[in-house]
């Protein structure tokens, strides 16, 4: 019996039940160790009978030890708890909500993302989180995509990567197409809804997406992932890592390529990216350098498809029609593309200064440069600052041409967070950032059919802009008994210089300075470790975007937006069920909305509407029905209204504008009901079958709610507002996964994703441009049809 050899095996998880792949399990005497696999399982073999101490360690978690007496094969599971100091996460936690925070949020782990990552853009990884609507210009999730949270578009959703702002400083949007396959380098994501906690960059008016990229893995690895699918879609990804070298260093890298023809005609994408991260680990500090880059070249599909094309059954492939780049000879301009390269450099430092104080800081620099190129038919040379020329007795006032509109920008700055825990029931965080942006906007004419007096590569406009963004915030949490009191105060100052119209309609360099104070308070009451209720009040302020400034004068320039956000909810987490309910009321003042009116420079820009609001209820939950079967679901019911809304329509009959007054109307692109469902079955070890569904109720393309007006100021015009909407849709996907290992291959993963399995024909996005012609309202609607049934299949190998 003394010479018998046995095995010790088990599973490593955290307190939330998430597995911890890469965790180290060691035996002191004899000295044996191993790492948990992708499913969190480990095994130590050939261990003689006797008494042993087992130790489990994982980055960011407290070391856990167990003493066992081994007399046969034994199963020993570990549940690790978060460490007091978690290197690389101070700045992340500074801008994130904790499990007891009075904020509505959803956390996604690396494992959650890996299940859904077949090469589609990042918004598709977030589709099953509450109150989210995603869209794809190309129709299949590769290329330009969009995301709305509670009806708010990407320009109102704050995005940070390792605490560093990602939103474009001027347009305020987030273009994930510029970071192809970033999902493969993400460790975890938190999606907050509403104003949320203080963060860096643009204020959150609908939500925040807080991304943390790759962190340390203790052992070396090599992962190869390949996907293929409908519409010529291909994804190739290689991930490599050294693991921990000498207990001090690690290097991780990724190289990706994604190609797709797109569901829409000529909506092709050619995407490339890489990610490299090197880190040094001290006893109480971490220094990490990240360099990552994305390149995209996509054929333009951003204008959508006219409704009269979609409804014309005589046109082949009418739902896939793309007219951009059509030339007079009936062929298409092959370089009707968006072409952009973006490089990111981050230096992240975390330091534990004492048992009570920790610090995190980051330096960052982002360089972007690119253009979109387009063919213009019969363009007026006067629109390009040129005087018509006479050639051979003929005046050349129009010509076919191709132009490039460039953006050459630099973004750099510093972020920091200092966390102080004077006692177990009290903590403070002081954080902030200073960021500077410079952007050169300019256009070139690169081709003309006729000379028209245009020299080669003629520059027809230039607009240089700069923006300085400073913020500082302080946050504290105090626990007394079962009650946690939360307070968060942020001051933000913005300086913006731009080329815009002055009061005399001269286009001159101008500047503006904005000061915002964003307070947040909340309270959480814990019934026990698994159940709590919370309530919060938060204020957010949001500056106008680049177009709001450049296409107006100081007299017509819109004001900044203000949001007062009230949230209350209940959360529970038991062995079989985890979920919550959240109530929200978001009261806007001076929300910026397109109304169709023309300002004093003749431009349609967004106008402030005095009173508007969003109110609703969000539910989300996951129940483990059996050991093999689980169901996750979300639902949002909301009302999204503008009070006393005025819509303007251009009347081409008499060159005036008609005015429509609506007492209360729906905010555009704000469905009143959003629901998702994921039923997951694991019929055998390593296997998963998931049935995933999403329902979106109807949405309006403008703010008129498709109703008849209460009144209008245009004599003799019949103003009826109809058919400016996106119909409701219900789509379902099926996802299959199987993971297994053989000998030297740690994991082999096979996956199949069948999107829109019932081949539903639907549009997820659109736009409308109504006017008045012949005494009637004419609706010019454009839609973005999404792909019918299509698939993506993947094979991954982990060594």
Automatic annotation (TrEMBL):
GO molecular function: siderophore uptake transmembrane transporter activity
Domain of life: Bacteria
Keyword Nucleotide-binding (UniProt): no
Pfam families: CarboxypepD_reg, Plug, TonB_dep_Rec_b-barrel
Gene Ontology terms: cellular component: cell outer membrane
Annotated keywords: Cell outer membrane, Ion transport, Iron, Iron transport, Membrane, Receptor, Signal, TonB box, Transmembrane, Transmembrane beta strand, Transport
Topology term for the membrane: Multi-pass membrane protein
Keyword Chaperone attributed: no
Gene3D superfamilies named among the record's database cross-references: Carboxypeptidase-like, regulatory domain (2.60.40.1120), TonB-dependent receptor, beta-barrel domain (2.40.170.20), TonB-dependent receptor, plug domain (2.170.130.10)
InterPro entries on file: Beta-barrel_TonB, Beta-barrel_TonB_sf, CarboxyPept-like_regulatory, Plug_dom, Plug_dom_sf, TonB-dep_rcpt-like
Entry similarity comment: Belongs to the TonB-dependent receptor family.
Annotated protein name in UniProt: TonB-dependent receptor
UniProt source species: Mucilaginibacter gilvus
